[in-house]
Structure formats: structure tokens, C-alpha cells
Description:
Protein name: ABC transporter substrate-binding protein
CATH superfamily of the largest domain: Bordetella uptake gene, domain 1
Family: Belongs to the UPF0065 (bug) family.
Signal peptide: 1-25
Pfam families: TctC
Keywords: Signal
Strand content: 15-25%
Amino acid sequence: MTVTLRAALAAFSLAACAHAGGVHAAYPEQAIKIVVPFTPGGATDSVARLLANKLSARFGQAVIVENRPGASTVIGAEAAARAQPDGYTLMLSGSTTYTVLPALKPGLPYDPQKSYEHIAIVAMAPVVLLAKNGLPAATAQEAAALAKQHSAKGGLMYGTFGPGSAPHLAGEMFAEAAGAKMMPVPYKGSAQLVTAMIGGEVDLGVDTVSSAAPHVRAGKIRALAVTGERRMPQLPDVPTFAEAGMPDVSFVGWYALVAPARTPAPVVDTLSRAIEEIMQDPQVRKSVADLALDPVYLPAPAFKAQIAQELRTFSDVAARAGITLD
């Protein structure tokens, strides 16, 4: 066999191998879609568009955000799970999709542990315990003592975004830590919740830091404690629950990127490396922090561990509090 023929056969063999298992070496070769199971304009959408812009610049391909809201994120989550596993459909969603709903609602059309390839968690979203101005409690510990005193009378009322929402679960964690019974009152969102607190309809509330901070700074409501490992820049004088002596109140939302299950490992690795570098960009970190989120990069192993731990925790909290979603 001549040298020329051997070289040709070797080149053909390499090309065949690339076609069989490594067409993804040139990934991406076309536009990428990031499904967001929320309406445009919220924090999830903002994070997705930030990542899309950076990925597009890095890959030299269009990266498009497609909003697929509905059914508490189930519509978008199912669409992403059923998409072709080729790396051209991704999903950016929050912990509601990955742990809260799966812990509380049986029979979902997706499995957060099996339906996706887990790329990375990119932001943490602490929540804040709020008090109406007339409540005689200046700290989380004083609010806990007050809640315990009122347990026999039906409990203090606290505002949530409805059964099984992040504020509901965080409120139940606070009630458990206080050894108190409390009464959740559902509202359709932050605006309604804050209005209700200003009007004295409820004693306490749980909301996102981004939504609550302007009202706290304006003196309309008070912030007692935030979840998470560190204080938030938007509320620098408000202690964490750990600082307040209630470390078991640990609910923190988060945002993460996934691909459909069976997406080839080289594609997932390419995306993971890209996201890791993007999340180290000071401009990106500032943009995420400006949304009252904590920018992070937690790769697949930590992402999977977060899901497993929260599924157990939220299932237990829901069982003790009698929270179910039909």
C-alpha cells in the first residue's frame, strides 16, 4: 500500500469517526434556542437573554430566547425535555421547575433528574421575610416569638404567591423554625402582596429581594431577614437567617441551564465550559447582581446534588405542612 493511499484511508477513517460520534466537534453549526418557561420581562427571562447574548458572541451563532409560559412552567419544561437532543434546544429556568413542582405535584410530564443533561446553576435568588410596619417585631427572632404566641389563635397571617410557591415553602420553614402555626394568604404576585402588607391585611410576607427592596427602602414595609449565605447588596442592613439565629430557614431559589437528556457529552462539555467562562465575566456578574441575584457557577455534579437535596427537603416540608398541588 502506498503512502498516499494509507494517508487517504486514514483521513477517511477520521472523517467517518467524526461523522459517527463527533459531528459535534464543530458545535454549534446553527442557531441555538433557549426555552424560558416564563413570560418576557422577569428575572428568568433577563438571565436567559444575558446568557444568550454572551453565547452568541462566543459561538458566532444566533442564540434565541423562546418564551413558553404556562402551567407553572410545565409547558416549557416539557417542550425542552422532548426536544431533539442535539444541543440546539436548551432551557433556562428556576428551581420552581427543577425541585418545587416535582416535590409537590405528582405525575409531571418530565423528571428533573432524568429528562435533562444538567449544565450549570448560574444564579441564586434569596428571598426576604417582610413585616408590616405596625407589627411589634424588629427582628426575625421577635417575629418568631410573636408567631408562637399567636399560634393558639390561628396564627399570624403571611402573604405568599399561592400554594406551593417559593414564598409559601419559605414561610413554612420559618413557621417550623419558630415552632409556630401560621396562616398563608395567597396573592397573585409581588405587587398585590406588598399592597396587602401596606394595608395591614397580613402581618408578614415572603418575597424576592428584587421586588421587595424598593418598598423596604421607601419605608412602606420592613425586612427582617434574607435567606442565603450572605447579605444582599440591595438590603445591606438586613441579616441572613443564619445571622438571625434561624439557619434552618434556608430556602433559596436559583436559575439553571439544561439540555434534553441524551444530548452528546461533547456538546454538554462545550456548553459547560462556555457558561463557566461567561459567569466569570465581571460585566455579567454585575448584570446578574443588578437583578438582586447572586451570580454563581455550579457545574453538573453540584447542580444534580442541589436537585436531590431540595426534592427531599421540600417533600418533607410539604408533607408536614399539608401542602399539595393537584
